[in-house]
Amino acid sequence: MKFKDIIGGISRSESVKDVYISLFSILLALIIGAFLIFLIGSSPLQAFTVMFDGAFGSVSNIANTLTKTIPLIFTGLAVAVAFRCGLFNIGAEGQLYLGAFFSVLTALKFSFLPAFILLPVAILGGIISGMIWGGIPGFLKAQFGTHEVVVTVMMNYIGINITSYLVNYPFKAEGWVAQTDIIPTAAILPKLIPKTQLSAGLIVAVIAALAVYFLLWKTDIGYEIRAVGENPTTAESGGINIKKNISLAMAISGGLAALAGVTQSLGVYERFIDGFSPGYGFTGIAVAVLGRNHPLGVILTALLFGALETGALKMDRVTEISNDLVIVIQGLVILFVAAPEIIRSILKRRESQ
């Protein structure tokens, strides 16, 4: 049996179990959340009903939920691609900031382009900036063995502060808010539902997820990336270039993270605003973990997190329950998903001693 077939068999057998683990983790977290609501003297049924209505109770609410889901899909995919290559990209936050800024800058500087060209060029400008920023830690890891976690954490601060400087000084629009000028109409992502913030970024996100699935499971490049993640030694013995795939995986990851910022700037704000992200890059780590690093799992998890966030806003207004409860539920979900892996790791270490 070929090594490629072995990896395929493992992924198929593991995927079913992974789905059950994720679903059980979500259910257990909701049960504990309901218990906490009961302890503070409120009705869990009322709280979850209000939360559901806030997320899906109207067309406007659904649009808001999907709007919050879009950047989480991109950052979740970014982290998932890196994970599949055995890498941990914690730099999605910095990458999405650079993607957002340079997509806007591209739109402003090339505003003379025809309408049907300007939008793709602006999106491409953001993607390229993210790929470069994500590719740097990949290159350092491949060539010098520098740990990608340390590098991506530091590059988060560098990327965020670079864009902050640029939007506060050379590219600041008139007024007291640190933001750029509004981009040309031709560079704005079309709205899917009028009078809402839901843009065609949702379509881009779904296409990106399908592209990631096709890349990882239907191409030789994806096979090599996954092989490196499964067992670098065996992959290298099979003639796979480890350094090339590490650099490539991190560059792809950075480009996907950049799209989170691109779709926000071109689809929601129609400009770059300093500090616009509430932490999409870091939440993307949780989305990838719960989604088991699979594109479909990432989409569903991003939707769950988007619904929790949107629903929590109404729950906070209507009931006496703080929307901080959602953060607790998200944390519990991640804990329950990660716990089996942690326990297995501890047992393996004890056995090896």
User: What CATH architecture do you see?
Assistant: Orthogonal Bundle
Order of helices and strands: HHHHHHHHHHHHH
**Tally of separate helices:** 13
Shape: globular
- When the domains are counted, the total is 1
Low-confidence stretches: 1-13
What this model shows, in words?
It is a multi-pass membrane protein. The chain crosses the membrane at residues 20-39, 70-92, 112-136, 148-167, 198-216, 246-266, 296-313, 325-343. Keywords: Cell membrane, Membrane, Transmembrane, Transmembrane helix. It comes from Halanaerobium kushneri. It is a single chain. With 353 residues, the protein is mainly α. Helices cover 77% and strands 0% of the residues. It has 13 helices and no strands. It has helices at residues 3-39, 44-56, 59-84, 92-109, 115-144, 148-168, 201-218, 220-230, 232-237, 242-269, 280-290, 295-318, 324-352. The longest helix has 37 residues, at 3-39. It starts with a helix and ends with a helix. The model is unreliable at 1-13 (pLDDT under 50).
Short summary of the structure?
With 353 residues, the chain is mainly alpha-helical. It has one domain: ABC transporter involved in vitamin B12 uptake, BtuC (Orthogonal Bundle), CATH 1.10.3470. Helices cover 77% and strands 0% of the residues.
Q: What key attributes describe this structure?
A:
transmembrane, membrane, cell membrane, 353 residues, mainly alpha, ABC transporter involved in vitamin B12 uptake, BtuC, transmembrane helix, globular, Nucleoside ABC transporter membrane protein, disordered N terminus
